[in-house]
Amino acid sequence: MSLLRDSAADGERLVRYLLGFLPEDEAERLDEQSVVNDDVACRLLSVENDLVDAYVRGTLNPELCRRFESYYLASPRRRHRVRFARRFLAAVDRMPAKAPAAPATLATRLRASATSWMFRQRKLTWRPMAAAAVLMLALSLLVVQNVNLRTGLNQALHDSAAQDRRAQTLSSELDAARESNVELARALESTRASSTDSRRDAAVSAAPPAIVLLPQTRSLAPLPTLAVAAVGPVLFELRLESADYARYRAVLKDQEAGRLVWESGVLVPRSIAAAVVPVFVPADVLKPPHRYAFELAGVGAAGREEAVGSYAFRIDAR
Amino acid sequence: MYVATQELLREEPRLTQFAFGRLLAWLDDGVDSEGETYLEMRRRLVSYFDRRNRQFPDELADETLNRIARTLGECGAIAVTPPARYCYAVARFVLLEDLRRKPRYLPVEAVRIEPCVASGPASAAGEQASIREQRLECLDRCLEKLKPEQRDLAIEYYRDAKRTRIDRRRDLAIRLGITMNALGIRASRIRGSLEVCVDDCCSGTERFQGPAS
């Protein structure tokens, strides 16, 4: 029998049993279980109480309600139960809700055991008994207080140790940050000094000139030959036949080796009217003597690139 | 007018104190319950006969237990275990006999009237109101006699209806650290003891023994 394994299903089955809906053989089995099986007997009582309460509160569905009135209420004893339920539920609803106490704590258990001990000693005269009770109560309170104090002390020690560890960690982190700051300050100072020297040198020497390249044509014009510095960026200005794009991209190819040696990021024309695209190329890319060529492509709105010109040149020994 | 009476159904003399003690011990099956097992078994038998729509379920339950006590007296022991199984077997015979038995009658004036009936020449409506009031007073008194934790549990358990009630019970079971089933059993026992207390109070034989918790 599956009784009590599935609470909801068995609850429903027990309701049907109580309302006489079950077939005779099944009802007889439950008759037996309701007397022999402790679990079933208790559950049946609980389900019956809930059924009666549902009737009293008017929460039974119409079919069950009709059956309840025609079958369940046929017995004087059961009518008596319903009358009791009416009064009981009215009393329950009148009373303020108050949650029953949770399982006993250490303190309540100690007090309970003290009470139990006093109960066993009731044959003693009341004076020693009262003294013993007071002593026992005081002792139990002391024990509870002691336990609480120990717990509090341990917690405080634990917290203190944790705070010490945290302080040490923070102190180490602070020292490291200070050292780092000193190093940064030194580096900044050094950078500022070298920057001042550079600006001074730059002011003395002339700014490097831009190398202007024209797009290659089919004519047999001689290849421009350049000499560039060994360090620093080399500025090229690539002249456009027409400024059709707002953005460009350039790659530098070693024409002798037939490989790509450098590529630019997005390039923006100096101005639309001038139709010139400035390109800075690191000097170390350009190895003399060698032939190179810029391949310039315009970047469309969708990011698609289209070749707009080729700029060949030769680098000679510096 | 005539009605069937409980007294007419009683065929056997009452048990002696000794026989009753032996019955209690047999029902306890080695664990002294101080009569709790007897009361619970009687309650189950009464409910059984009542569900079978017998007119006097209390008498049939007592008849069942009397027969078992007599068997114990004659044979010294009953081999069937657990005792509850034997109780059911005997109860079934008592039920069948009662179904076959022709009802016997007494004049209606002789039938015991319901407890809590107010005395005095009051009108019918006033009498009913007085009965209700007396029963409510009894209920209040019995609720007051419960241990505070039992009273709180009963109030919390039986308050509200439907979903709210289910949620409330689940929370209560969690708070008490017991299963819903155990909570239901505990609440039913408290309610059962209240019902008995109110009946006793109304019949003037007030005694109260809270459920074992």
The mean pLDDT of chain B is 81
Q: What helical percentage do the residues of chain A reach?
A: 40-55%
Q: How many β-strand runs of chain A?
A: 8
Report the structural category of chain A: alpha/beta
Show unreliable segments of chain B.
106-120
Helical content class of chain B? 55-70%
Strand residues, percent of chain B = under 5%
Report strand order across the widest sheet of chain B: 1-2
Q: How large a portion of the residues of chain A is in β-strands, by DSSP E?
A: 15-25%
Number of helices of chain A: 7
Distance between the termini of chain B: 47 Å
Q: Uncertain regions of chain A: pLDDT < 50 for 5+ in a row?
A: 104-124, 202-207
Q: Sheet bearing the most strands of chain B, described? A: 2 strands, antiparallel
Largest interface comes to: A-B, 41 and 49 residues
Q: Specify the oligomeric state.
A: heterodimer
Describe the 3D structure.
The complex is a heterodimer of chains A (318) and B (213). Chain A has helices spanning 7-18, 24-36, 38-57, 62-70, 76-94, 106-120, 126-204, and strands at residues 211-213, 225-226, 233-239, 247-254, 259-263, 276-282, 290-299, 305-315. A five-stranded mixed β-sheet of chain A has the order 2-8-7-4-5, with no helix packed on it. The N and C termini of chain A lie far apart (103 Å). In chain A, strand 4 (247-254) and strand 5 form a beta hairpin. In chain A, helix 1 (7-18) crosses helix 3 and helix 3 (38-57) packs across helix 5. Chain A has 318 residues and is of the alpha/beta class. The longest helix of chain A has 79 residues, at 126-204. With 213 residues, chain B is an all-alpha fold. Chain B is built from nine helices and two strands; from the N terminus they run E-H-H-H-H-H-E-H-H-H-H. Chain B has a two-stranded antiparallel ribbon. In chain B, helix 2 (17-28) packs across helix 4, helix 4 (57-75) crosses helix 5 and helix 7 (148-158) packs antiparallel against helix 8 (162-176). The A-B interface holds A 4, 7, 18, 31-32, 34-37, 39, 41-46, 49, 53-54, 57, 59, 74-75, 77-78, 81, 84, 87-89, 91-93, 95, 97-103 and B 40-41, 44-48, 50-53, 57, 82, 84-85, 87-88, 91, 132, 135-136, 139-140, 143, 149, 152-156, 158-159, 161-162, 172, 175-177, 180-181, 184-185, 187-188, 191-192, 194-195, 198.
